[in-house]
Design goal:
The chain is of the alpha/beta class. It contains four helices and four strands.
Length: 127
Amino acid sequence: MDRFLEGKKAIVTGGTRGIGRAITESLLDHGAAVAMCGTSQVTVDSALRQMSNRGEVYGEVADVSNASAVSRFFKFCDEKLHGIDVLVNNAGVSNRGSCLETAMVVQRRVMEVRTTMHNDLIESQEI
């Protein structure tokens, strides 16, 4: 496998399951060091155990819709990676059903998760 990301440092939000997990694995397989977050300690610990043989990987619990959690996560990333080359803002939530059938509170939560981290990073200039 081509390790064209050798020496690069990546962050993947929502990197413990699903598409984020596949992205994390691919980044590791291509040589990047990766810091990822997930919403539960169980999924973070499980992902770390299962991916540790692929390369340099770190994990932390973080709810990316919470500004202070985002700040703590990026401080963790800086301590572990000492910089960043790649950011994959993958974290998200979903709801099954149409927008018309979905309660407004659920729709707001979906949008919070998708936008809060990006906006907080720009405002705080964490990266």
